[in-house]
Amino acid sequence: MADGSAVLCFPDSGAWFQGYFTSNTGTVGLLGVEMDVDDCVRCPHGGYREYSLKLIQYETEMEVEVFVYKTGGNLCAIQSDQEDIRFETLNMLTDDKAEKFIRKVFPSVASAATSSQVRNEYDDFSDGL
């Protein structure tokens, strides 16, 4: 297991997230798409969700998919029983601070979020997976 820092960007719906993980061995891209779970398990307030998480090694163009679960709502933890993967929230940005950070770190997400049509396409995309 590598120690490092991750930056994750969630839309309000929580249907997907994008981010990256950086350690002393390099940077890995992250793309999580929410998976359907039974209504008795799923928390409507975002406290428990399951995701298919794609890890993308940019240098080798390798991709690995693992299944993770998220607990804790906004100050979340993401982990997996299958792999040695665990993310814990140490800092959360909202409103103007989040918008500035997203524009800097995730320009493609920021430009998509300015258009309600594209935002709806993101939601439709994640619903179809």
Q: What is this structure's SSE topology?
A:
Elements: E1 4-9, E2 16-23, E3 26-35, E4 48-57, E5 62-71, E6 77-79, E7 86-88, H1 95-105, H2 107-113, H3 116-127
Antiparallel strand pairs: 1-2, 2-3, 3-4, 4-5, 5-6, 6-7
Which short descriptors sum up this protein?
7-stranded antiparallel beta sheet, 39% strand, alpha+beta, single chain
Structure description:
There is one protein chain. The protein is about 25% helix and about 40% strand. The protein is globular, with a radius of gyration of 15 Å. A seven-stranded antiparallel β-sheet has the order 1-2-3-4-5-6-7. α1 (about 95-105) crosses α2 (about 105-115). It has three helices and seven strands, in the order βββββββααα. It has a domain at about 5-95. The chain is of the alpha+beta class and about 130 residues long. β5 and β6 form a beta hairpin.
Cα-to-Cα separation, first versus last residue: 28 Å
Query: Which class best fits the helix and strand makeup?
Result: alpha+beta
What form results from the Cα inertia axes?
Answer: globular
Main pleated-sheet profile: 7 strands, antiparallel
Which regions have little confidence, pLDDT < 50, spanning 5+ residues? Answer: none
How many alpha or pi helices?
3
Secondary structure tally: strands: 7
Task: Estimate the mean pLDDT confidence.
Answer: 79
What does this entry show, briefly?
The protein has helices at residues 95-105, 107-113, 116-127; strands spanning 4-9, 16-23, 26-35, 48-57, 62-71, 77-79, 86-88.
